[in-house]
Amino acid sequence: MEKLIMVKYGELGTKKDNINLFLKELKKNIDFILSDLKPNITYDKGRMFISSDEENFSKIEDKLKYVFGLRGYCIVYKLDTRDVNEIGRTALELIKDKDIKTFKVVTKRSDKNFPIESLEISKRVGGIILPHFDNLKVDVRNPELTINIEIRIDSSYIYFDTIKGIGGYPVGTLGKGLLMLSGGIDSPVAGYMAMKRGIKLEAIYFEAPPHTSPEARNKVIALAKKLAIYNNDIKLHIINFTEIETSIYKDCPRDYLITIMRRMMYRISAIIANRQNCKALINGESVGQVASQTLISMGVINQVTKLPVIRPLCCFDKLEIIDLAEKIDTYETSILPFEDCCTIFVPEHPVINPVAKLAEEYENRIDYKEMIYRAVHSREVIDISAEETNKFADLL
After folding, report:
1. pLDDT digit string (tens) for 315-330?
2. What domains are there in the chain, each with its CATH number?
3. CA distances (Å), origin 296, targets 266, 300, 366
4. Which of 261, 263, 256 lies closest to 350 in space, CA to CA?
């Protein structure tokens, strides 16, 4: 009998002809996050199996919770036999010291040619177990213990509890996107949701020193590190936005500051995205949350790029976003009191229904093309590896 960790596929299990593409990427992602433990990973279209020293199992289970594409994972016991009596005797040996009053047996046959049907296997295994306990009963609705049996082509497996995975598609299977990462609550959550759909991230951050502080930059780096755990690594592009922002503030109407500022950010992001082979921009906008996030504002801002703009949180309310931020451990970092350049320059009465022609007229008052060129060519790039600590206390 061999002890392994079995991985159950999530949504990617619905793929057919191209499932091998998804499984190869999933294996690569698991190999990466478990690289320090040097596991052996095998898989087919039904399951993936991880073998390692048993002392590493708890570490493996902890790390798998950061891998997209998993419906669940569990410790399994592999038998090189499909003999039902042997399966029953092994199951009995595994549970003989458990203090339980009720149980049930659930059998799945991935090999449909196996001559004994699933329900009959469960009955036979239960019949082997019951005589060895004084007060044990079968409860198919709410058992204290479920014994799961899987019959595969040349072996069988027994397992008990399954740890729920985070689902989605393996990161990297659906291309690459550029996350507009601020220091706020929303954009890290948007990045998480994009990764869940299989999109690998790079990120861009706009700073405006001396109006924004080194602590604001370090907060964003800390957030990028937290996202890198799911993404394997993140390339963070830091843009000095001071010259552009100052010119907008000086020469454009106050109510259009945020609209024009966002249009400039989109222009720069689109340039970086195209250079990095990113197929979409991603941000944390939510309809109606602030003035620049009305449908009309989004439309006017979108006009400056041909790239798709993905807004994973578009129809989430703030409390839902906060719940997700707490779940992925970005919330406490995001609420640290260090403002980004958008927050600092928010006018008292921003326009909520901007007119595209007016936005173009106002922004043409500044030589923004030259400033964008300088901002792009002077950018700083930080490569953040998932192997780095996701702690941020030393940064702030």
Report:
1. 999 999 999 999 999 9
2. 2-167 (3.30.2130.30), 176-395 (3.40.50.620)
3. 16, 6, 24
4. 256
